[in-house]
What we know:
- With 120 residues, the chain is mainly alpha-helical.
- The chain is built from three helices and two strands; from the N terminus they run H-H-E-E-H.
- The termini are far apart.
Amino acid sequence: MTISIFQVGVPPVPRMTKLTEALDKVKESITLHEQAGIELHRLFKAIIVKEARVATDTIDFTPKMYRELHARYQQALAADEEEFDFEGHRLLTEYAKYLLEYLHDRLLSTGHNYPLGPKS
């Protein structure tokens, strides 16, 4: 059997101070961890929203926009650019080639023999 006896009038201050400091560090660590978790959650939500926005971001093409894209594509080819900006979107030059073919067939095929389609 062990009995601990404190001297009367001498509190165990150094021991309690160390314990209090350790508990404060644990609380600080928990707070930082919670804040980091909140920030990670916000970042995750921002990424999801950005990805959703990118996935649904579209360009509505008109014959005029087709001609503008074609002109920008020709500039990119002349400058040997692998990608270029068009209407706030970054397009691969090689992709633009196929996009122009698709748009020409869908948007500008009118029976006329215009390489860039009819003027609108």
